[in-house]
Amino acid sequence: MVEDARQIRPKASFALVESKLHPPSARAGIVPRTMLVKRRLGSQTAPIICAVAPAGYGKTTVLAQWAKHKGRRVAWVSVDRRDNDPAVLLTYVAVALDRVEPIDPEVFQILASPGVSVLATVLPRFMAAISLMREPVALVLDHVELLENRECLDAVAELALGLPAGSQLALASRHTPALPVALLRAQGQVVEVGVAELAMDQQEARALLVGAGVELADEAVAELVGRTEGWPVGLYLAALALKAGSQHHGGFAFTGDDRFIADYLHSELLAHLPAELVTFLTWTAVLERMSGPVCDAVLTTAGSGRVLASLEDANLLVVALDRRREWYRYHHLFRELLLADLQRREPDLVPALHARAATWYEANGLAEAAIDHAEAAGDAERVARLVASLVFPTYAGGRVDTVRRWLAWFEDHGLVDRYPPVAVLGAWVQALVGRAVGAERWADAAERQIAVADRASDVQTPPDGSTTESYLAMLRGLLCRNGLSRMRVDTEAALAGLSADSPWRAATMVLSGAAYLLDGHAEQAEPVLAHAAEVGMHTGALPAASTALAERAIIAMERQQWSEASALANRALTMVSAGQLDDYIMSPLVHTVAARMALHRGDMSAAKEQLVQAARLRPVLTYAVPWGAVQTLLEMARAYLMLDDAAGARTVLRQARGILQLRPNLGVLSEQANELRAKLDAIRGGVPGVSALGTAELRLLPLLPTHLSFQEIGERLYISKHTVKTQATSIYRKLGVSSRSEAIARLQEIGLLGG
To answer: Which of 105, 520, 552, 624 places its Cα 20 to 30 Å from the Cα of 15?
Structure first.
């Protein structure tokens, strides 16, 4: 059970996290939507509720009232743009569910694994966790329109389709969420609430106006409802305008056009408010969430906390986000209109306001929020400094898509060539997820920067106190583009320039030890790897520590020191298991070494199980990290040969030889590959089975258990529907099944889906 929701985002404000997991606090005068909540939604048992309408139709309010009507077993998550990372989104969902009833803690551990397959690995655990709850649960996801990440949208769809009997999922969105709505509708599984249902009638409109302190005759209320077509926020804006002193009685012709509404907002509402209050509203609109101190920083004034409280008391479209009334937000549409007004009237001020917000957030330990505002301010120096300091912990926390989003900002703005530490880390991340082309592109940018930096004194340096040259040397060692001899030189140079407490020190020591080992110098490799393991365990760099232990186990096996090899392999495997590191790029090496140890003691079943775990990550074993990929694949080939699985050995050897064609100078690995090929050439036949799945087929596996059609799977993988069908047929044949459902069952049985 998660005891502290602050675990979701390092150093995040507890109030900000809490605000995502509760419906917005009800404001005085809010209109009960009794007919809609109790009769339309409360009487329905369909597992899916979709509230879809443009901004300002009260979707959040209706679902908050529905959640209150449902009782205490309701989990709530308010989505924001930073949730476009499946690990982040699903961690919030897990925490929300955990507060209703404790769920399997392994769910949280899995979410902290970089590169984890959300659809194949995490969601089955979610479904299992929900199904084990004593009573049904309701889950609300608000502002789903902010989700753009495909894997996040797929996760929401899988949640919708996999709910256990009695549980419900309610979604609020400005547009129809990415669900198989037609299928759900045909099966009576979805209740749809749209503009027609959310529009207020005359009675509700009168209640809203009275709550806002405005009294109108029946005829005027009817006219207002007709003009706004029952649009709740339109009614409310009109009420606020009248309350503020507007003399506009000729009707309220809201057309839905953003520019028109913004003009109306200014002429009919803002124009009647005190100038200092208008300034407060428009300038603080740059903040997604507001507190007194951050508003003071943006406005360069004092007393903002009192202003926020008074705005909420006046029902001026300000929502409290926590019970202590420390954090607030504007109604989403109201904020959009204020921002539009600010951009139109004071565009030159916008970057400065964001810069002030970035400074406050950074000073108060909220670095991720600082990045968002620094990006909006165009402050690339600050973005680069913050991103460079956050890449390691964020990636290690499983939030790979968040890291990619930060790095993409530099690419989108043509800034990759300006910041050496960011370029190095960008290449490193690309390499760790097996994207060789991207790794080379970022690495080339880093090389160009260093050449320029030799002539520049103001080049940005790494945040851990290391030299820029050491970062680049570390990257050169990882990519090993110029052979193992050069890899040794690069890693030694990197270690000389890395600071003593650099989070990359243990990983660089592993690179140094591996370079010695694979270049035929095991005696020099062993002490380096032993030190790397110690440093990694001491600093929490568990992926580096487990890799170092696995490399030492290989050395011990070569020396026939089986007792020592077994102890090292067991320590590495325990570390991978305890740290939920199964989806790290070097974990397949650990599993393969464990398989070889199992084979040595005659445990064929355990060996096969370990090889299945290694095989899941074969698609990321590319020439991006050639030494590690080839070494792992050759170890796998040896294990398959010991299992008399010639087909599996040929498959992984073929993958290794393909990498060697691109990176031929890999020391003893080339000779080892030739020896294995000679052995396999002497073996006839071999029936293709699970071990013979190719990398393209392995990439397809996690998508098979989903709701996606072959056409949609092809879109995800950037291949044709015909190619998907061909690969699926090949998978069925190798699994010994004849259908997609049988394949899913078989994959779950053998563990290739990571469940």
So the answer is: 105
Nearest to 117 by CA among 703, 719, 575: 703
Q: Are 189 and 46 in contact (CB under 8 A)?
A: yes
The angle formed by the CA atoms of residues 481, 485 and 488, to the nearest 5 degrees, is: 90
pTM exceeds cut of 0.85: no
The full set of domain ranges for the chain reads 5-198, 202-272, 607-688, 695-750
* Domains 5-198 and 695-750 agree in fold: no
CA geometry: angle 47, 50, 56, nearest 5 deg: 150
* DSSP-based three-state secondary structure for 484: helix
Give the tokens for residue 615: 């095989």
Q: Report whether pLDDT(253) > 50.
A: no
- For 5-198, CATH gives 3.40.50.300
Residue 334 CA to residue 321 CA, distance in Å, equals 16
Beta strand 48-52 with 168-173 is parallel
Cβ–Cβ contacts within 10 Å for residue 532, how many?
28
Residue 525 CA to its chain's centroid (Å)? 37
Give the position of tokens 């000073």. 363
Nearest to 566, CA basis, from 540, 602, 538: 602
519 with 668: CB under 8 angstroms? yes
Q: 530 pLDDT exceeds 70?
A: yes
Q: List pLDDT tens digits, range 600-645.
A: 999 999 999 999 999 988 999 999 999 999 999 999 999 999 999 9
- Ramachandran bin of 457, using left for φ above 0, alpha for ψ from -120 to 50, beta for the remaining angles: alpha
pLDDT at 15: 57
* Alpha carbon distance 79, 371 (integer Å): 18
* Average confidence (pLDDT) over 151-158: 88
Dig out the tokens for 85 from the structure: 């990372």
CATH code of 695-750, in short, is 1.10.10.10
CA 261, distance to chain mean position in Å, is 35
